[in-house]
Amino acid sequence: MPPVYEIESDTASEQKVDSTYWQKLEDKEGKWTFEQVSKEPLAGKFHIKGIKAEGVDTNDVQTYWHRYRFKNTMAHEAKISLTSAVDFFDVYIIKEDSSVEHYRSGFLQDFEKKDGLKISGWSGAS
Predict the structure, then answer these.
(1) Distance between CA atoms of residues 110 and 19, nearest Å
(2) Which of the four pLDDT bands, split at 50, 70 and 90, describes residue 80?
(3) Which of 47, 55, 103, 126 could form a disulfide with 91 if both were Cys (CB 3.0 to 4.6 A apart)?
(4) In 1-126, which ranges are continuous DSSP H helix?
(5) What's the burial of 126, exposed, middle or buried (CB within 10 Å: 0-12/13-18/19+)?
(6) What is the pLDDT of residue 68?
(7) What pTM does this model have?
(8) Closest of 65, 83, 71 to residue 23, by C-alpha
(9) Residue 24: CB atoms within 10 Å
(10) Does residue 30 come out as left (phi exceeding 0), alpha (psi in the -120 to 50 range) or beta?
């Protein structure tokens, strides 16, 4: 798992999370589900940027899974948005009680299915 990125403020208009705080997994066929990448053997294939995962073909990949760990260190609920300039952008949040929240966005996502700031490719969460 990547190291925890501590959210100390939610007032910045934009803040980039350094690549040391996330891992990626290439999904060459674009068919894996959240449940599949959350468990072994796929969960063990996530890797840091710049290092190729053993046994993973990275040629012609269109779908990537990214894994972050965020911790809210503020005294109030954090209001954050994640974005990516992609056709479909799904964000899954595993809460402290192990429940999962799913947010959808992306340039080609149906407007009615988008969560967060619908005029852009942002997906919001609290």
Answers:
(1) 30
(2) confident
(3) 103
(4) 34-37
(5) exposed
(6) 95
(7) 0.81
(8) 65
(9) 20
(10) left
